Amino acid sequence: MRLTRPPAVQQAYVLHHHDWSETSLILDLFTRDSGRLAVAAKGAKRPYSQLRAVLLPMQRISVSLSKPAKADGGEVQTLRSAEWGGGATMPAGAALFSGYYLNELLLKLLARHDPHPALFDAYADTLAHLAQGDAALRAFELKLLSELGLLPDLSVITPTQAAIDPARRYQLSPESGVIPPNSDASLPGTLLIQLQAALLHGSTAALRQACAAESQGLKGALRGLLHYHLGHQPLRTRALLVDVQQLLDT
């Protein structure tokens, strides 16, 4: 199979960074054309470096990268240049926590060098709508699971492939897919049909609108699905948000 060479300049977001040396950083970038990449930003920690104001989380940037090289114990590319790509400013308050939650999901579920341009576009769109709350998060979780092949067809009962009855309720099981409910945690058939239609259409706005009608029910169902596929990788952002909420309540 012939491999396509990535473009000289790529659209990207910084998902995470850690120190590489006294003056440099290792970045985890989510790029539209090449997927998730490990990138060395040499000199980015220097006080006069122009990169300091550019390499911020949840900000679209345009990057130019070198060919991969061995560094920090793994295959890492070198950042040649980075510029702010425009768009919305960094979210604040609860929306900022939600943005870090999205970043952690991408870090833990996306394999490196596996492009997902539709997911990249959905991530960018979701960042601009985090102030809408749970509906935006649920829509992104659905898009992420769907893009990675971890979400069953929501328009059919998984074991039998029979069409969903809009008048009935169903359960989203991590192991069995869409099944008749065996507990109180169930979702309306009409909702599942709407969600599947929005996913097929590719509209993040339509997906958010469908999620808004049943955001709390979806939260539990998708949390179970994500935990199943994350395995033993706890989500630090979720635990931190719970701690902050408890502190505010007291």
Give a brief rundown of this model.
The chain has 250 residues and is of the alpha+beta class.
How would you explain this protein's 3D organization?
This protein is elongated. It has helices at about 95-110, 115-125, 135-145, 190-200, 205-210, 215-230, 235-250, and strands at about 10-20, 25-30, 35-40, 60-65, 70, 75-85, 170-175, 175-180, 185-190. It has a 5-stranded mixed β-barrel. The protein has a 3-stranded antiparallel beta sheet with strand order 8-7-9. Mean pLDDT is about 85; it is low at about 245-250. It has about 250 residues and is an alpha+beta fold. The chain folds into 2 domains: about 10-85, Beta Barrel (OB fold (Dihydrolipoamide Acetyltransferase, E2P)); about 95-250, Recombination protein O, C-terminal domain (de novo design (two linked rop proteins), Up-down Bundle), CATH 1.20.1440.120.
